[in-house]
Amino acid sequence: MTNPSLLILPGDGIGQEVMAEVRKVIDWIGAKRDVTFDVSEDLVGGAAYDEHGVPLADETMAKAQEVDAVLLGAVGGPQYDDLDFSVKPERGLLRLRKEMDLFANLRPAQCFDALADFSSLKKDIVSGLDIMIVRELTSGVYFGEPRGISEVDGQRVGVNTQRYTEAEIERGARAAFELAMKRDKRLCSMEKANVMESGILWRDVVTEVSKDYPEVELSHMYADNGAMQLVRAPKQFDVIYTDNLFGDILSDCAAMLTGSLGMLPSASLGAPMENGRPKAMYEPVHGSAPDIAGEGKANPCACILSFAMALRYSFDMGAEADRLEAAVEKVLADGVRTGDLLNEAGVKPATTSEMGNAVIAA
Ligand code: NAI
Ligand code: MG
């Protein structure tokens, strides 16, 4: 097998700072393990605009289509707020997602014991939590036609349409079942088949796909009950598969069970490539944080944990992913904290690079 290839796009603001810490992790794995990553680095967002006048150059897009995984920091910043919509930094990100056709958005909610106090829930409810929400990302009510605001019988009417084809439900379901196979082999599909035809079709198609994954235990739940269960007893879940709208809400809800924005990774996966690996982009959930950019205050863990997801889901290096996550867990347990993970005054926060170094040491 050829070396795993990775395109790094640090982007803007703290994206560059947190990515520098991920580079240390990549170098460590390269030095200590029998694997060589083919790493290339390029510009996205405002950084690309400054250089090329567009938020993503065509050559960068082409490279992203070739590599096994893209790792992105963050894009945007106030200096770009007045740019024309067509060249705004966010458009670079949207172009990557669209042209790579990344239809499955993976949002883990994992509770590090040392941060359980940051949760809005009781410690024993979240302690040890490790779930994954797979959200369908390219269809559903955010894209369905007809849509718009029009005037009917003298009043304004707003319309959006929930529309899913079998093929759209199926490809996301396959991605979710594949993940379940790499995890605890349990999948809960969430829709509202009680009141929505698209939900009835969703349930049917997921059930059909499940026949190809007999080892995975499949359950179905109405999404409103799913919201209740997520805050009542989240540990009952392993992988959750749901549509674009429900997934948007449920994944934000689940993420906050576990603490700070500075800790949250994500992945977006597309169709399998010729080598069997899915098209993939990994990125922290947070943005470019202009309020702290350039000050060495950013928490690099969300980006480091995004790389751990790349190890697990793109490179079949699950043991290394576990090791990296365990290192983050140890660092937190040892009390190393960037400012976003501190609520006591008078404690000196760790810098971005101190946090990265501590992960390497662990
Ligand atoms: P943000 O996520 O950049 O920041 C929100 C708050 O969380 C800020 O107070 C920030 O300091 C803090 N924060 C975020 N990440 C942190 C980290 N790793 N360590 C410590 N503190 C952290 O969201 P905001 O402020 O709404 O947006 C700022 C810029 O980022 C905007 O230009 C926005 O468009 C862009 N953005 C980009 C995203 C992306 O690239 N995927 C996602 C969200 C926003
Ligand atoms: Mg959201």
Task: Compose a concise summary of this entry.
The protein folds into two domains: 1-115 and 259-362, Isopropylmalate Dehydrogenase (3-Layer(aba) Sandwich); 120-130 and 143-240, Nucleotidyltransferase, domain 5 (2-Layer Sandwich). The protein contains twelve helices and twelve strands. It has helices at residues 14-32, 46-52, 58-66, 89-99, 123-126, 166-182, 197-210, 223-232, 244-255, 301-313, 318-333, 352-361; strands spanning 5-11, 38-41, 69-74, 104-110, 130-136, 144-152, 155-161, 186-191, 217-222, 239-242, 265-272, 278-284.
Give the total of domains: 2
CATH superfamily membership of the largest domain: Isopropylmalate Dehydrogenase
In the CATH scheme, the class of the largest domain would be Alpha Beta
| CATH topology descriptor of the largest domain | Isopropylmalate Dehydrogenase
Instruction: Compute the number of helices.
Output: 12
Which quaternary structure do these chains form?
A: single chain
Structure description:
- Pathway: Amino-acid biosynthesis; L-leucine biosynthesis; L-leucine from 3-methyl-2-oxobutanoate: step 3/4.
- The chain is α/β, with parallel strands linked by helices and 362 residues long.
- The protein has 2 domains: 1-115 and 259-362, Isopropylmalate Dehydrogenase (3-Layer(aba) Sandwich); 120-130 and 143-240, Nucleotidyltransferase, domain 5.
- Helices cover 39% and strands 22% of the residues.
- Strands 2-1-3-12-11-4-5-10-8-9 form a 10-stranded mixed β-sheet, with helices on both faces. The protein has a two-stranded antiparallel sheet with strand order 6-7.
- Helix 8 packs parallel to helix 9.
- Magnesium ion is lined by residues 248, 252.
